[in-house]
Amino acid sequence: MNLPTIIICVILVIVIYIGIRSTKKRATSGCCGSSETVKKIRVKDKNKDHYPYKAVLKVYDIHCQNCVHTIENAFNSQEGFYAKVNTEDNTVTILSKQQHPTDELINTLSNVGYISKAIYKKTGSFQFFYK
Predict the structure, then answer these.
(1) Beta 53-59 vs 91-96: how paired, if at all?
(2) How far apart are alpha carbons 109 and 81 in whole angstroms?
(3) Residue-wise pLDDT tens for the chain (131 aa)?
(4) Which of 7, 12, 29, 121: disulfide with 55, CB 3.0–4.6 Å?
(5) Under DSSP, is residue 83 helix (H, G, I), strand (E, B) or coil?
């Protein structure tokens, strides 16, 4: 083997090693760099009929279960909320027992580090769809 071939092989081995190490780290600690798993806060009242108000927010940068738990916990830690994240379309459905302004819901996500926008809101008998 000549020197350029050896150098290329060494570079390839280093790149493969870094890739495997990064994948292993994501598998054990989540992709967001946290070495600890975010513990999910359980909602006491899971009966959806008790929540007359509904909002759906588009949330950007959902990457892993830690992201899902952080977003859901932002609401589920408060009395009167029941939130569920859908990772397929990057939305969070927020059910509430009292009416809350859309800006308040968006600010709740902003406070835990996520950017969002409203795409649906039901207040009593009125429904709003956002573009």
Answers:
(1) antiparallel
(2) 13
(3) 798 899 999 999 999 998 888 777 666 555 565 667 888 999 999 999 999 999 999 999 898 889 999 999 999 999 999 999 999 999 999 999 999 999 999 999 999 999 998 888 776 655 555 54
(4) 121
(5) strand
Please report which helix (H) or strand (E) contains residue 97, including its range: none
Residues belonging to the chain: 131
For tokens 């956002």, name the residue.
130
At position 33, the amino acid (one-letter code) is: G
SS3 for 2-69 is CHHHHHHHHHHHHHHHHHHHHHHHHHHHCCCCCCCCCCCCCCCCCCHHHCCEEEEEEECCCCCHHHHH
Structure tokens at 35: 């070495």
Residues contacting 87, CB < 8 A, separation 6+: 62, 68
Tokens of 107: 């600010």
Q: Full-prediction pTM beyond 0.85? A: no
* One-letter amino acid for residue 85 of the chain: V
